[in-house]
Amino acid sequence: MAVAGRENLDADHVARYDSKEDAGAVDEVELLKTVGLTSSSVVVEFGVGTGQFTLAVAPQCRRVVAVDVSPPMLARLRTKIDAANLGNVDVVQSGFVSYEHFGDAVDVVYSRFALHHLPDFWKGVALARMHRVLRPGGVLRLWDVVYNFEPHDAEARIEAWCATGSDSATFEPLEDGWARWELEEHVRDEHSTYTWVLEAMFERTGFAIEQAEYAADAMTAKYVLRCI
Fold this sequence. Notes:
The protein has 228 residues and is an alpha/beta fold. Helix content is 36%, strand content 22%. The protein has a 7-stranded mixed beta sheet with strand order 3-2-1-4-5-7-6, with helices on both faces.
């Protein structure tokens, strides 16, 4: 809970999250179909949040385990699951380094904008644990705030990113989009790392990179990783 992120434990933030952040969930499901997702797949999502991806993938697979540490996020997710009448979603209050999997082997692990909450040592532990729950040949889809630049470029890159946030005279969150102070808070208080650090962790924990996509602003990366 200590690294869950201040905002993710805030019920007001949870209530406006879907207007602030679009997970592109339908496109993500279509991508996963091209790398192995089928109607018989078991999927585990870490850092499920309000469940945009979980609700999109549930009708396309056999079982989804939706994992998050935040009680308000999980409460919002359960409301959505009930409204959608989904019977194949298990909601688990847990985290990357505490989740224990039961049941059939996992075909797909999914995580978006969550791993950065862990310091690098614990990222490595988390990746090893995700590898452990995946079947051989299974897929980890990871999308996160990851810095694709060299340390000497950090000041300019971070300033350019923070400048994309809306200026605000107060520290009140925006109803949609992100304020500059929220982006600054991410850099200051959370644990995004460099692509070349994270990718070395993939290799050390038993993953092969099948796809890597880096944002033009060098601030986010998307990976398809194969469990070997």
